[in-house]
Amino acid sequence: MVIKAGGSSNLVILSTSLNFPVHIFNYILFFQMYPFTTFTSLLAIAGAVSATLDPAKSNTKGQYPKNPSCSPSKTSNAIQAAECAYNTRVSGKQTFAIFKVDHQYDKNNGAPYGTCEAYECDAPTSGEMTADQDYWTFFWK
């Protein structure tokens, strides 16, 4: 490999005849094109996002809050109960999700499927829960 350093800190690769880790030079070129401050700014922004990435910590099968204290932040239709508990994402801090079984999917592989509503307000207390076997409530607190 022949490497020539040009003016203004430009790096020019003229030949790749040797087995040399060219990806190292790709990183060098990346940091020449995008200053380190830009890179660290992107990392800081990514770290500031407060989305809920953890799976639910607990659940109550056969119960749901009939009157949640807020509207759902996100509603997903025709998803599995496990997806509701593990992969439903909201932009803020998710506190609970209500999953309602949709029986038209009962014979599908991976059932139960249904509608998942994710919430960011205070989770309901046990006294605010209503019994119904078609519901499953997942909690993140």
UniProtKB/TrEMBL annotation:
Transmembrane spans: 36-53
Keywords, comma-separated and alphabetical: Membrane, Transmembrane, Transmembrane helix
Domain of life the protein comes from: Eukaryota
Protein name, UniProt field: Small secreted protein
Species in which this protein is naturally found: Gibberella zeae (strain ATCC MYA-4620 / CBS 123657 / FGSC 9075 / NRRL 31084 / PH-1) (Wheat head blight fungus)
